[in-house]
Design goal:
Elements: H1 13-19, H2 36-39, E1 45-55, E2 65-69, H3 74-84, E3 89-92, H4 114-124, H5 128-148, H6 152-159, H7 164-167, H8 169-176
Parallel strand pairs: 1-2, 1-3
Length: about 180
């Protein structure tokens, strides 16, 4: 994760760290990229996800892989990829459609948030259960962030195509309750 991204509440890198077993967060600064030995796990093929990589092979074995996600702005991500590209295989995924990350503008076709890239990877690998669980957490993060920003109408629009309604019905009911005004 780029060090400038580390303090942004909208960052999905921290959500990945909280939601994905064995995920580790490494801060990257222009003057200091983590050492390869700190990041790369022995005995695994390292995939570095980035749109400029080669197409992901269809025959990948998830148990033999490690994925390095690059989290930052597009400019920051390009800088970080340049620093780590020799560590493993730079891989891209066929990601199409609209981003569900309504907290920041989608920069262009095929450009998604870090967590959406991971979700696309899991779908590519056929890992439906972790995909479904992480997608619900991600969309709850977006919904709650929109509400916290005072964008309640937009948050409700977001729920129209979201698994959050099905995954967290009790939570949504509690959030919809009228609360007494405290003066």
């Amino acid at each position: 994760m780029h060090h400038m991204e580390a303090h942004r509440p909208s960052s999905t890198g921290h959500l990945i760290g909280r939601s994905v077993a064995d995920a580790r967060l490494h801060l990257c600064r222009p003057d200091r990229i983590p050492a390869r030995a700190e990041v790369v796990r022995p005995g695994r093929e390292l995939w570095i996800l980035h749109p400029l990589g080669e197409p992901a092979p269809a025959d990948a074995v998830p148990e033999r892989m490690q994925v390095l996600l690059i989290d930052g702005s597009w400019k920051q991500a390009l800088e970080m990829v340049r620093g780590v590209s020799a560590w493993g295989r730079c891989v891209s995924l066929p990601m199409k459609g609209e981003s569900r990350y309504w907290l920041r503008a989608q920069q262009g076709p095929g450009q998604f948030s870090t967590i959406e890239a991971l979700l696309h990877l899991w779908r590519h690998l056929g890992l439906e259960r972790p995909y479904t669980e992480l997608r619900a957490q991600f969309e709850l993060h977006v919904f709650a962030s929109l509400c916290a920003r005072g964008q309640k109408a937009r948050a409700m629009d977001y729920l129209a195509d979201s698994p959050v309604r099905e995954a967290f019905p009790e939570l949504l009911a509690r959030l919809a309750e009228k609360r007494p005004r405290v003066d």
